[in-house]
Task: structure prediction
Amino acid sequence: MERLSGLDASFLYLETPTHHMHVALTLVFDPSTVPGGYSFERMKRSIAARIPYAPVFRRRLVEVPFRLGHPVWVDDPDFDIDYHVRLTAVPGPGGLHQLADLAGDIAGHQLDRCKPLWEMWMVEGLADGRIGVIAKMHHSTVDGVSGAALLSVLFDLEIDPPDQAPPEQAGLDERIPSGFELMSQAMVARSLRPLEMTRDIVRTGQKVLGVRKVRLGVGSRGTRAKAALPLSAPRTSFNGSLTRRRSVALGAIGLDDVKRLKNATGTTVNDVILGVCTGALRSYLLERDELPDKPLVAVVPVSVTPEADGPKGSNLVSAMFVQLPANLDDPVDRLMAIHEGTRGAKEEHRALGADMLQNWAEHSTPNVFANAARFYSRMRLADRHRPIANLVISNVPGPDFPLYLGGAELIAGFPLGPVMEGMGANFTVMSYRGVLYWGINTCPETIPKAWALASAVPRALDELLESAGLEPAVYRSSEAAEAVREAGCGPEPSTP
Result:
């Protein structure tokens, strides 16, 4: 039995019928490398054989009676691989659009909290015999980095690896704790809360003073390097209340092209990704004649290492608020402004402390938090105030070597983060073998054509390269790009 951290539990409390808090991954595989040939049952057996190596796949939630404390994880005594690994298909020969449509439909349905919080859909019918996999897991279970790390458990580094000895199962406890046990544990945790809160108030006060000093400082380019502030974002058409539905668009650009820009401008890979996002958003908003005259604001999750005495959990993440100056005409000017902004955001984040979010989340009261989230969604309050931010943008590092699932080679992987209330879009980027794969998750009632954003991504990269005086993108002629195209996943899908 393991109690959820406050931050992990907050992703449960935030979930409402329209606000889904799961992350997803849409993958394309070449099954021609599978020893003995591909079959769904063979792939399911391969996944089932790896479950013992990652207990996260077998654990499910148990709520504390009367919600006196955060839920706990227990090993599910009724775990059934057939419930979690499912078979579906798209009309053949399916391409990227059909796979994305299916991913959006799956993303629009919440996970059953009576089961371990994950599903994996095997998708047949893709062009040239390719197969897809759409994996979905609740954010209370993983963050972006730990989710990517699970790939090392499910996937292999070679087509036909040698058999491994099964891990020891001595610690597996399938007993469901009693309500008395759960309440006793919760009351012990609550008894320590006043002391912990006093400590956190003192620490937070000290850190806020540190942030103030940073905001009064001057940046290396002679300007004040400041993070963006919550509730400073301009309102756009995609900033409002959500519905249950989700729409997904997918794309890709070359990592080497991004690194060329990074080296030429003295910025970072993450800065360039944010610059490409800004260019794509600018194009989208210009086409709709709604480009604001002030910068957009993005929430950028940051992986952190908490203090030794701090709370532990599945989510080791904090967040920065970064300005995206889509109102500037020149792409390089936008990139340099982002660079200064992210530098200031990092300085403020360090001053505030990486673990402040984890510490304060420990004090969240389940009933109050969950009821407030439902009231906020039901009353559509996101339509009635200035956006906290315009969207979420996340960058997750992935492997630069080939991976295999049951012998099938991974060709492309598109991550999908959750869409938040008031922020109708989530851009998540993951690198794999020299390619940056983009998953754009949206609410279709706020962004009717998500593919317009996806098709604007490579154009925004081209604009940046041209503005920086660099050669055009070379990704389109790379071997990786050709492999993706064969699966119907070219980097520039047409806009339907």
